[in-house]
Amino acid sequence: QEGLAMSGLELEITSAAAKPQPAKRKSLSAGTAIQIVQLDSGSKTRASRNLKLNTQVLRDLVSKVGDYPIAVIVIAGPGRKGKSFMLTYIVRYLQALERTDDGNAGDWMDNDNPDVAMKGKGFTFRNGMDQTTDGIWMWSRPFIIKKSKAESPLAV
């Protein structure tokens, strides 16, 4: 049993299995961007806004990880600097990498079709000055990656 504390909120994550089971690679859905920490819209000023942690989303995600070791990719920074855009391309790369058993993502940028629209296939982003994502977002499922045929998979 492990605990996660965040600004006075606590999330307990427990394993459903009594003893660890061998990890099996399985086919998972494509996934989507989901918000796990939301800024409370009730406050008047941005500086005084409270955070709301969506524990159910975290529980659901952890249940999909199984017994795989976990790696987390984080991008943080000021608003309107391309974080969601970059995360969308990371998702695209991880999707390609997940389809292989040897750690070679191949043509993950789809050079035969370089103008493939990313809209609706990752984290929301758009041109302009208005923010599209607030709070903390993550992908709705882990990517099960195998770096080589000899190594065990990793949940990213």
From TrEMBL:
Occurrences of domain Guanylate-binding protein N-terminal (ranges): 50-149
Tell me, what is one Gene Ontology molecular-function annotation carried by this entry? GTP binding
Q: What is this protein called?
A: Guanylate-binding protein N-terminal domain-containing protein
Q: Which Pfam families match?
A: GBP
InterPro entries the record matches: Guanylate-bd_N
What species does this protein belong to? Answer: Allacma fusca
